[in-house]
Design a protein that fits this description.
Layout (H helix, E strand, L loop, with lengths): L2 E5 L2 E5 L4 E4 L2 E4 L9 E3 L5 E6 L2 H7 L9 H11 L6 E5 L5 H8 L3 E6 L2 H13 L6 E5 L6 H4 L3 E6 L4 H5 L2 H4 E11 L2 H13 L3 E9 L3 E3 L4 E3 L6 E9 L4
Parallel strand pairs: 7-8, 7-10, 8-9, 10-11
Antiparallel strand pairs: 1-2, 1-6, 3-4, 5-6, 11-15, 12-15, 13-14
The structure holds S-adenosylmethionine.
The site of S-adenosylmethionine has 23 residues, from helix 3 and strand 8.
């Protein structure tokens, strides 16, 4: 199990037994390290071992495909109520932040990544996130495997340009009452997803723009940050009819 080593305003994600050379000295992680332990570099700089938490995945997983941000993952979890033992089909894996977050929430996740190198990195990320047993990363184009997947997924999460090709089969893939969640960076893609979900007979199709405004708290007053709009993308949710 990997730990975050926090000290001097820095964080390093390291496995037991790892050695890291930094300008603050060489950090040798003992094999029996535990959360809360302090480990010093050979120059005497102290780092404290801390267990990885959900938002750390976004910052510390090795990146391939652009990962979903914690706020968007929160919306997926809140709108679908994903829980322990749920069966999830996810595509594409990319960095794997969404898949790992769902696995850490207790779901059994099958996730497809069409790029073999990305899939390999994602498998390593699942191990770092302690969800290698909960998240199965399959190499391949999800649209070519829909027939063999069968139905009965409680949740279908999509973050690919060709998401509509999977949405068209959502009612066959999902259990009665199961949820679809699609992340799209552009409004045109969102509109296609919505139309396809309606044509596929899904219920309660809704699309949300995800904007988050950070608050600047200062001596003169408090107001939303002027740094930017904070747009990340659009999330479309829908549900398989029960009957
Ligand atoms: C934006 S990333 C997904 C990021 C992911 N949701 C996360 O939180 O880390 C999109 C990934 O989907 C993969 N992809 C695109 N179309 C695919 C398909 N049809 N089947 C499998 N993977 C696909 C791409 O190679 C890319 O790595």
């Amino acid at each position: 199990m990997a730990y975050l080593f926090v000290g001097e305003g820095r964080e390093y994600l390291l496995e037991p037994g790892a050695t890291l050379e930094t300008d603050l000295g060489i950090l040798e992680v003992p094999e029996n390290v535990e959360a809360g332990d302090t480990v010093e570099t050979h120059l005497g700089t102290a780092f404290v071992a801390r267990e990885l938490r959900g938002p750390d995945l976004f910052h510390h997983f090795e990146r391939t495909g652009a990962p979903m941000m914690p706020r968007d993952i929160g919306l997926v979890m809140g709108h679908t109520g994903v829980k322990q033992g749920d069966r999830v089909l996810d595509a594409g894996t990319g960095t794997g932040v969404l898949a790992a977050s769902l696995g850490r929430a207790g779901a059994d996740v099958v996730t497809y990544e069409q790029d073999p190198e990305f899939a390999e990195v994602a498998r390593e990320n699942m191990a770092l996130g302690s969800v290698a047993n909960a998240v199965e990363v399959r190499t391949g184009d999800v649209t070519e495997h829909l027939d063999e997947l069968g139905g009965e997924f409680d949740l279908l999460t999509l973050d690919t340009e060709d998401a509509p090709a999977v949405v068209a089969h959502a009612s066959e893939l999902l259990s009665p009452g199961g949820f679809l969640a699609v992340y799209s960076p552009f409004v045109e893609a969102t509109s296609e997803v919505v139309k396809t979900a309606r044509e596929a007979g899904l219920d309660g199709v809704e699309s949300l723009e995800t904007i988050q405004r950070e608050m600047d708290v200062g001596d003169r007053g408090t107001r939303p940050s002027t740094a930017g709009v904070g747009h990340t993308g659009y999330l479309t949710f829908a549900r398989n009819p029960t009957l």
